[in-house]
Design a protein that fits this description.
Elements (H helix, E strand, L loop, with lengths): L18 E6 L6 H13 L4 E6 L12 H17 L4 E6 L8 H14 L4 E5 L14 H24 L2 E4 L2 H10 L7 E3 L23 E6 L8 H8 L6 E6 L9 H15 L5 E3 L6 H8 L4 E4 L10 H8 L4 E3 L19 E2 L5 H11 L5 H14 L2 H30 L1
Helix pairs in contact: 1-12, 2-3, 3-4, 6-10
């Protein structure tokens, strides 16, 4: 299995004929930033990538007024248009453009209307409000249709201006098509790449003791990730099983420490201190990989929050260990083919006894051959190289249409 090196210096000397301005979190402790840096390793094989920093406006202390956020949007537009990029690729999350959904949609529309280059959007989240709510009553259906248009008119305008829209799952594509069927030809499904990070020569900051079995929940310690479900399942797991929370509170999560305190209180109440390990933030990808590679199984008991895909799920699958998830739709991204359907297993994580039984069953050596085969297929089908090739195809098709349209305009002008 190929191992990914997160550096790009090994690619110096490659002839690249395309320049991409990537609007993304970059110099931040952020899952989107980590995803962007890994993706750029693949994109750098055919393109120059110019990162332009996107801030999380929900938690940015210096952008604490509407006027300051408006100036930030203006500056973002100016910096983007000033680049020599052939194309702009925006990683979209609502918090990058406003503090509330309505403000975020308006801010995003301002950006989309002002950028003077072809634009590709990666839509990371599809909220419930972006879909029409079904009603049996014709009157309520009509009212919902009106309210939906009002809620999403800015987003509709923004998506309509995009030259291509990248989604991370077939489910999100179906949701988008149900609301915006005219966008069909601009939608592209490119799941988050499943690519191991090399940990060769790295000493992990945490080591598994002899006889321990590690059940790992990686990533930032956030409310929607369901850490309490794994704690409850510990009651029904053998004594040698440890819950490993491989991450810490997101530095910009204002309520994160309240959630953290709640987890500590639950651990105190259960008296399971010796069975829970907190690693803290693992900023170095190689160190993180060295810790995660010791897992006996991964558990991702996420709530449904509209994610189009999950970088943590991709990381977990890359290690070739059993992966148990919740029933959240983002957890099924890699399971839509007959030869990948058993790459992970989903369970009702609110039932701790059932979750514990699923963990024990998944780590049974008798269940390994098929699971390992399906995970190898996932790693091959959704590798960084194949994903980057998909992005390259999208970019080149957008630029080709731009060239054709320019030619038509020039012929008309003549």
């Amino acid at each position: 299995m190929a191992r990914m090196d997160c550096r790009t210096d090994a690619l110096d000397g490659i002839d690249r004929d395309m320049t991409i301005a990537l609007l993304t979190p970059w110099n931040q402790q952020c899952g989107n930033a980590e995803f962007a840096k890994r993706l750029v390793v693949g994109l750098a094989r055919f393109a120059h990538v110019l990162p332009i920093e996107l801030e999380n406006l929900n938690d940015h202390d210096t952008l604490d007024t509407g006027r300051k956020r408006s100036r930030y949007i203006d500056d973002l537009i100016e910096r983007t248009n000033a680049t020599p990029a052939d194309l702009v690729h925006i990683q979209h999350e609502f918090c990058f453009f406003g503090r509330r959904v309505r403000d975020a949609n308006s801010g995003f529309r301002r950006v989309m209307r002002a950028i003077r280059k072809p634009v590709v959007i990666s839509l990371h989240t599809w909220t419930r409000g972006m879909s029409r709510r079904p009603h049996r009553s014709l009157l309520k259906q009509g009212m919902e249709s009106i309210m939906h248009r009002l809620r999403n008119r800015a987003m509709k305008d923004s998506l309509g201006r995009a030259d291509a829209i990248i989604l991370h799952s077939k489910d999100t594509r179906a949701n988008c098509l149900a609301v915006y069927p005219k966008l069909k030809k601009r939608l592209h499904v490119l799941p988050i790449p499943v690519e191991p990070v090399s940990a060769d020569g790295i000493t992990p900051p945490f080591r598994k003791r002899p006889g321990e079995r590690w059940i790992v929940l990686p990533g930032f310690v956030s409310r929607y990730k369901g850490h309490r479900h794994l704690l409850e399942a510990l009651k029904f797991l053998p004594e040698d099983h440890r819950a490993v929370f491989a991450g810490s509170v997101h530095p910009k999560d204002r309520t994160g420490h309240e959630y953290w305190s709640g987890l500590l209180a639950a651990i105190d109440e259960m008296g399971c201190h010796e069975r829970v390990i907190f690693t803290g933030f693992l900023g170095d990808p190689a160190e993180q990989s060295a810790v995660l590679s010791q897992a006996d199984a991964f558990v991702l008991p996420y709530d449904e929050v509209g994610q189009s895909g999950s970088a943590v799920l991709a990381d977990a699958l890359s290690h070739g260990k059993p992966v148990i998830t919740s029933l959240a739709r983002s957890m099924f991204v890699y399971r839509h083919d007959s030869d990948t359907v058993f790459s992970s297993v989903a369970v009702d994580v609110s039932d701790p006894e059932k979750l514990a039984a699923t963990i024990v069953d998944a780590t049974d050596s008798a269940s390994c051959p098929r699971r390992r085969l399906h995970q190898r297929t996932v790693c091959d089908r959704f590798s960084l190289a194949r994903t980057a090739a998909g992005y390259e195809q999208v970019y080149r098709s957008v630029l080709a249409r731009k060239t054709v349209n320019q030619g038509i305009w020039l012929r008309k002008a003549a």
